[in-house]
Amino acid sequence: MAENRTASNSADQGEARGNRLLAALPAEAFERLRVHLDPVSFTLGEVVYESGGHMEYVYFPTTSHISLLYTMIDGSTAEMGLVGQEGVVGIALFMGGETTPNRAMVQGAGLAFRMKAKAMLDEFKRGGDFQHLMLRYTQALITQISQTAVCNRLHTVEQRLCRWLLMTHDLTQSDELQMTHEFISHMLGVRREGVTMAANRLRETGMISYVRGQIRILDRQQLMAHVCECYQVVKDEHSRLLG
Amino acid sequence: MAENRTASNSADQGEARGNRLLAALPAEAFERLRVHLDPVSFTLGEVVYESGGHMEYVYFPTTSHISLLYTMIDGSTAEMGLVGQEGVVGIALFMGGETTPNRAMVQGAGLAFRMKAKAMLDEFKRGGDFQHLMLRYTQALITQISQTAVCNRLHTVEQRLCRWLLMTHDLTQSDELQMTHEFISHMLGVRREGVTMAANRLRETGMISYVRGQIRILDRQQLMAHVCECYQVVKDEHSRLLG
DNA sequence: GCCTTTATGTGCGTTGCCGTACATAGCAGA
DNA sequence: TCTGCTATGTACGGCAACGCACATAAAGGC
Prior knowledge:
The structure is a homodimer. By secondary structure, the first copy, chain A, is of the alpha+beta class. Chain A has helices spanning 10-14, 20-23, 27-34, 91-95, 117-124, 129-154, 157-170, 181-188, 192-204, 220-226, 230-242; strands spanning 38-42, 47-49, 57-61, 65-71, 77-83, 103-108, 110-116, 176-178, 208-211, 214-217.
């Protein structure tokens, strides 16, 4: 999948502007980068980076989105962040760490544009708009991770499920989300049954519907009314930094 | 307190090397920065930055340490990170965000060296060792925050208390930590009674002793055996990036 | 020495989530 | 159509942490 890149042509790379970070670059910087951008198609569940593994590319998602996860020794997992068209996967490459202790996994199938670490670093080291944008995005991601830390501590599964559904919906081009309760449970770091119970309550009040791995968002307004403050904090901080 | 700075003299600023980030700088870069470094004495509970507030300085702690906290609308709080002599407070300034939604509060009284945002940014924009060091430290901090997110979700109060005591001990020059159960409860985001119960169990097994806001670390080995894996993950990643 | 304040200890009922077990219901392939 | 697999529903006991109330104990002011 990750290998279905075409010969670089401008039609492909124009679509890279579907990623909001790339879209925010001035034309001059984007022109320098576009030859290094290759489209990649991600499938659900695909592992983009393994924890501590070698990172060859950074990825700018357009229609895909990717979870940043940590896996404990006992195998239990929890998500710390979620990256879609508003961000970039692989910040460790420009932060200088080369790798991270986290796994990155595709949570929504779709497209991304990848760039070799070296090409990205060359542009980063120019110290211009690209660097500025990457660092501001990184700060937004830090806010997201921080808020996840606090949210995990202080809010219920039901509230966290609302937040997670809203975040995922924001990164998805449709009201249909393809994911099982089991999958969500690994993201929220809770039991599958806990997700089933919470999802059931959201269904009873008409916020969502679902059957076998197909969740439909029916009433965003009501979800927004139900979610904890964390959702809005992260969103506001993101628009302050990159809006 | 924050105003007891002396006329800049080299004796003072030599002590700035007590901060490990400043210590890791090559002499040439440090020489450029040293005239901008002013010693500051922090008292327990002092607020360094307010959430969303103006940030005039970055701070390089030497003997003090500072908590990064988030406060919910209902007043409940939880810590996302802890910064001492190995780090710097105010990363939002070089990340380009100017502020953050977090509060920074002094958790251990002591010294730090502060630098005006502009002077710091001038050096950062040179793109040399200073920038490199700041970014690598930021990545280490991201790991700490991430691990806190996961730890909050998956581990018990007792395990998290062990982790927090060990982290704090690492940043303190003595085995005596001055903090009440009440204070710790705000950091861990739990009830005061929960801290009392957990602390009591650690005392019964001889790991710590305490009376009225004075905690003494008696048996680090046993604490290490009791803590969740999160402690070591953060420490290892920190040495990988900055060791 | 007494009084006040602050820190810690303890009890009690409740809740959220866990671990486990098993039942049902869609869907796919033989 | 039957079979098997996967996704979801439900139940039960257990435990960790909660909210609340109040008891004790150490330090400090007078």
